[in-house]
Write a structure and sequence with these properties.
By secondary structure, the chain is α+β, with helices and mostly antiparallel strands. It has a domain of about 170 residues. A three-stranded antiparallel beta sheet has the order 1-2-3. Helix 2 runs antiparallel to helix 5. The radius of gyration is 46 Å and the shape is rod-shaped.
Amino acid sequence: MISSALPSELSGLGSVFGSMSVPPLYHSRLVVELRQSLLRNFLGKYDRNTEKIIDNITEQKRIMTMQVLSGLIVEALVYYWNIAILEQDLAALQDQLESTRQVQVITQRKVALGLSENIELLQWNSLVMMYESQVKMASKALHDGRRKLLEAVQMPLSTQIEASTSLKKEISVPDFEAALAYAMKHRPDLRSAKLTVQNAELAFANAKRDLMPSLEFVLQAATQGRESSYLRSMQDLPTGRYPSLYAGIVMTAPLYETGGRERAHNRNCPLFR
């Protein structure tokens, strides 16, 4: 009887505890966190230095590209002026050859009439041969000059080029002081060197900040949903029935860290080169 009574009593207790139990709840949470560095990257100083370094590197590449293009333009201009000079020389030699041939013909007629010696005709013949040789050499130099210009500007060698420029014997004297000041202000290698020094200073400043401990202010706001099903807990988030707010300061400092000092030293070396 005792054994039969025990189950009924235990079953009664089980029904009592069963009515007091809480069904399982599903928790969902939405967190918004704000972090602000107070030492290394205070107000984004570290990130701004890094962005400035990237901008300087981009500017250096642009300066180098402009320097290459400027060099090509100057090279093309030098070849162009060389062609103009060679064309003037060729035209002068052709005129000289033409006038020498006219005198040669006149001398031949004088020799035929007995008014001149054969030696004089031989002299004019040698002059004609000399000017013909010079005209051929000038023509070859002009052809080579045009070929160099076409190769510099990467144009087909069959392109016809004529320098329609009249050369002057007198040129205006530039202001050398103003030209020197402009050159020192805009010369690419000096501008690139200044940007290199600035990048070294910014990298060294960031390296010194790396030596600082990480100190951050953390502000966290959250809301929770608690329901008997996961979907209902997600739907309970916008109601804000279970809000929470957290604010604190988090500090981390590596112990016996020597890598940061080495990086700072390496980034400081370009400033003394």
